[in-house]
Write a structure and sequence with these properties.
The protein is α/β, with parallel strands linked by helices. Helices cover 38% and strands 14% of the residues. It folds into two domains: 3-245, Aspartate Aminotransferase, domain 2; 248-381, Aspartate Aminotransferase, domain 1, CATH 3.90.1150. Strands 1-7-6-5-4-2-3 form a seven-stranded mixed sheet, sandwiched between helices. A five-stranded mixed sheet has the order 8-9-12-11-10. Helix 4 links the parallel strand 2 (93-97) and strand 3.
Length: 383
Amino acid sequence: MRFRTKQIHAGVTPDPTTGAILTPIHQSTTFVQPSVDEYMATGYSYSRSGNPTVRALEEKVAALENAADAAAFGTGMAATNAVMLAMLNAGEHVIFSDVVYGGTYRLATQVYRRFGVEYDFVDTSNPANVAATVKDNTRLIFTETPANPTLKVTDIAAVSEFATTAGIPHCVDNTFLTPYYQRPIELGADLIVHSTTKYLDGHNATVGGAVVARTDELQEKIKFIQNSTGTTMSPQVAWLTLQGVKTLSERLDRQSANAMQIARFLEAHPKVTKVAYPGLESFPQHELVKKQASGFGAMAWFELTGGLEAGKKLMGLVQLWTLAENLGSVESLITHPVTMTHAAIEPEERLRIGITDGLVRISVGMEDAEDLIEDLDQALHRI
């Protein structure tokens, strides 16, 4: 099946009892067993260990990524945590992209450090930096591309090739581009992390995550952590996400087209000093994105003349753009990473990796691009 067909049909079948076209919400703690000798004959015993609604979503996400399997979690951070728990022991080392979601940075520096896990945040946009940072105890390479919020891009194939040679699993956070635009396992990655909260849901309705695995062996490790830590996604969230995924391609195409129009508007505006969007020819890694992805996504950022104060004022003047943490929804959102999504990162580290105080991140939605541009324009004229 091709992508649009899979996003609708993969993982789901009509309910055998009623013929319902939508996967039922199996809101049940436990599942009755035929007998002691036939324990787990249906594949389910207790919803923490497996649930039919959640399983339908897992199978769909795995199919979209062309992977062996997937595991769904209660949050995107629970998914990231599962990868680290599955791959690392105390005293072992992980390499992260230097630009990652603030929660990932906090997890490494404030949680795993307490248990003796070593880490380095390096510029993975240059694969040579990854090779130079590997230690004898390195057990995981974790990249985020495009990165949140600077959109820095990592060459997935190049890092994966090195990781395979070194015998180190490579995990890619694919939240920003989704399997519709970018499929890291096809480029050599071993694991993929998603915050399903974002584009896979697409409607600001749920919080969830997923880990996708290249092999059954890796999947078994992830599923063991999912069951042992009790971080499985709930059936209700899985059901809502299943409905959201069905329109992923149509939403993302519209949002990305809007993002391109808005980025070109901002690039030409006299009050904007800098704008970054992978679809712009001015974006430093434009050609790499074209090489490893089929689309540019709907995330962008910009800075204004007047810096931080101008940016904060702008966010109070827009009307269609909603000031909120999240991204990927049908509604357009505007965010100040320094005080919101990336506040957990120390100021010196933020500046080192390019997250300036005046950076304004936008997640472009499905509204009419002309209305979004007019709203930004009126706000910019009042600064």
